[in-house]
Amino acid sequence: MRISTPLRVLCYAELLFSILFLSVSRAHAQEPLVIGIDHIPVVVTDLETAQADYRAMGFAIKPGRFHADGIRNAHVKFPDGTEIELITAPSAVDALTEEYRAKMESGEGPVYFGLYAPDPAAVLARFRARRVEAQNDNGMLGFSAASPLHPLFLSQRNKAPTDKPEHFAHQNSAERLSALWVRD
Is 77 helix (H, G, I), strand (E, B) or coil? Predict the structure, then answer.
């Protein structure tokens, strides 16, 4: 489903307002509900080529793990917990891999954006109080494919026990993902 540009702008404006509201509304009492970027999944058609391209730009690459649905990935990890996830789906076997395959047909690039929410249950409660439909998948909050918020998900940070110092040692001195620009 293609959303018209004015509606998309309105949806993104509502999204930004919601994120800002979630981020500052509890600031006086405790930590904000949404802290910032968690990670950006970037769909690629050839994972090995993408890894070589990112290495050529000075990024260290952490190999991914096996996924039951056939997804293959690799990570550009930063010391603050943010990351870029290079991801490919060799075949469409479920809704997620179907979506990745569809995105790959129109080109490579970011497909979703993840925000860091230390307490997903509190975010979900806030969404429900405002009648925003969100799905909770083991602490990762997402939105249905029909929602204009579908590209967004919120989750806690996952520090992997397999992370090593060399995964964060980028030759280009990058330390974090600090901003995300969304365009039509």
Answer: strand
Confirm if 155 and 64 have CB atoms less than 8 A apart: no
Query: What structural domains and CATH numbers belong to the chain?
Result: 5-167 (3.10.180.10)
What confidence tens digit (pLDDT) does each residue in 64-100 have? 988 999 999 999 999 999 999 999 999 999 988 999 9
Q: Which residues pair with 38 in a beta bridge?
A: none
Separation CA 107–CA 101 (nearest Å): 10
User: What token pair was written down for 140?
Assistant: 């990762």
Whether 87 and 73 have beta carbons less than 8 Å apart is answered as yes
- Amino acid making up residue 86: L
Q: Give the pair of three-digit tokens for residue 181.
A: 């620009």
Q: Tell me which amino acid residue 55 is.
A: R
Closest CA to 114 of 97, 89, 93, 139: 139
> Residue written as tokens 């930590």?
31
> Phi/psi at 33 (nearest 5 deg)?
-70, -40
